[in-house]
Amino acid sequence: MQLKREHLSANRDFRDPWTRIEHLVGAYVTGYVVLSVILWFGVWRVMPRHFIRLWVVGSGGEGILTAILLVTLRLLVRRHLWWPLHQQAAHDGLTGLYRPTVFWEHFGHQVALAYRHQQPLAFAFLDLDDFKQINDHYGHATGDAVLRAFGQYLRQQARAGDIVGRLGGEEFGWLLPGATVTDAQVAVERFLTLVRSDPIEQNPEITFSGGIAGLTGHETHPLSAWELAEAADRALYQVKAAGKAQIVMASSPST
């Protein structure tokens, strides 16, 4: 995969437009409610009793009612409109895994956490072998079924807290917070055995290759998220050049 630095740019806003709109509306509604409550209690304490009824049925009372309606509307929109759209925007429609932009956002965040808490982190870059031949020989419907099943297997193998995504075409990412590269290699090889033992559709055997890179959290010269991803990418291409159905651990550029 041809990595681009903007994938892991710390200054890039990966939030989808619906998220930004929801945050703006939320800030407006919250401010409106707070102001209405302040006015309500302020007026209740200082106004004479015979003005209270007039204020409640006038603009102030309408303001409280409007605020309640806005809060209710916001909750309904968030549950029935924003959340489904957010899920759709964040996940690949075919495999159900994270889309690239969302995956790389989590990736950068987890690298920062690994150094902050001095914990290991491993990243596996996976690529289906001979996928073009699968499409050409069995058809694109079978190719889609292979990708869909591969994504399902990957979700099943991933631990709670792991982050998995489809990074483009037949390439996938598996991020394992708290795992060493050795732990990741064991997990990925176990996953490879599972995939090879369970043929998908008419294809007799599905295999993949993988490059693994990781952090210890105690590096003398800390790696950036970009450097970690690039190390796994180089290891993957090393595997693809040598053959297929292999897992290689990248040599760490930092000691």
TrEMBL record:
User: In Gene Ontology terms, what is one molecular function of this protein?
Assistant: diguanylate cyclase activity
Any one of the GO CC terms: plasma membrane
**NCBIfam families for this protein:** GGDEF
Single GO biological process annotation from the record: negative regulation of bacterial-type flagellum-dependent cell motility
- Keyword Membrane attributed: yes
Question: What protein name does the entry list?
Answer: GGDEF domain-containing protein
Q: Where are the transmembrane segments?
A: 21-42, 54-77
Where in this chain does the record put each GGDEF domain? 119-252
* Swiss-Prot/TrEMBL keywords: Membrane, Transmembrane, Transmembrane helix
Organism of this sequence? Sulfobacillus harzensis
SMART domains xref list: GGDEF
